[in-house]
Design brief:
The protein is α/β, with parallel strands linked by helices and about 300 residues long. The chain has one domain: Alpha/Beta hydrolase fold, catalytic domain (Rossmann fold, 3-Layer(aba) Sandwich). Helices cover about 35% and strands about 15% of the residues. The radius of gyration is 18 Å and the shape is globular.
Length: about 300
Amino acid sequence: MSKEQRAKIDAMLRQPRPEGARPVEVIRAEFEAQMAEMIVPDGLRTTQTTLGDRPALHVEPRGGARSATILYLHGGGWVFGSPRAALSLTGNLVAKTGFGAFSLDYRLAPEHPFPAAIDDALAAYRALLDEGQDPATIAFAGESAGGGLTVTTCLAARDAGLPMPAAIVAFSPGLDATRTGASMDTKAELDPLLSSASMEYTGSMYRAGADPHQPLLSPAVLADLTGFPPMLIQVGTNEILLDDSTRLAARASAAGVDVILDITADVPHVFQSFAGVLDEADHALDRAALFLTQHVHVPERAFVSAAKG
């Protein structure tokens, strides 16, 4: 059945799309509509709040969360996406771990190019710490561009002298603005969703002329990951971004970081979002939840909310 599921999703993602560059507003609206069709688990409570002076969606089990927090960073090429669009992923992590999550509505390019998203994610993490939360109770998680932000936010936190979070979970992360991974070419025909042209379109908006040859834009090839927390990187074989993950995992391992590179065959970019309709997605999220519960400390005391407003 899984083979049939994969084939059906691949065919759906290959449906013809308008050619040429489209306005950002159109891309954003289409992505929100697409992601609204994803399955969100039952039994969740969502609340609009603020974290680090940015809007955030607080997601927790309806019966109350365990005293640990996921700082979730949504995907969308740093140009589109939102906490609501990522709710199937955030919601599944919350439902499977019992942790609460803050899904951050960080600023988007082209209105707010690099490094605005990193600055916002760092401010959100700082807000959790300033409210008294132990970093051992905090994990970073995200998909695609947000998966990349889990890494670059850790780099920024380390540079700022902040303690590392307990763990990182990155789904199909974007980690190389230089686009030098061999999979950009070798997986071009297999990837039903991303292309080098589409990535350059949104990537150029985010970079806004910044040199891609720097750790905060291309950590897979340039970052020193010394001192990083344990990392779980999940990616599919049918992704042009596959080598972003494999190269980051190699750098992490060389730096003495505990890292799990979790590669699933014949699945597309951020396949975990198809939870409920793709067996591999449900299994991957189970593994991600297990990783989080193994690495994130859950204290006996009640959770101190970092929400404001």
